[in-house]
Amino acid sequence: MNQVRKAQERSEKCQKEMEAARQRYTRALLDLDSSNGKYQEDMVDVFDRTQTFERRRLEFLKSILLELHSSLDYSQNQALVYTLSLVANVKHNELIIDIESCTRMHSFNVILCVS
To answer: pTM for the whole thing?
Structure first.
């Protein structure tokens, strides 16, 4: 009889622990749900700032390459001729289109739609 009572007590104790764990889990889920909107806003803000930095970085690189191109004397060094195609590519590169394409493919909103 003593063993049955101990088993029942252990069972009741486990049931209480299980219920307490379930309540903690439910509270944790509610906390996550309540902060999800703020997290999404923050991630969109970080992504937008990163895209702005990337645009500035690409614009700077393009301007430096074009300055370098204008200062080179191609008539004195034929080895520099290959840079003409690079310059043509840089001139025709559409930075805004590239960044917008990256945004469409990798932005936080796209990740939310997939999830």
So the answer is: 0.53
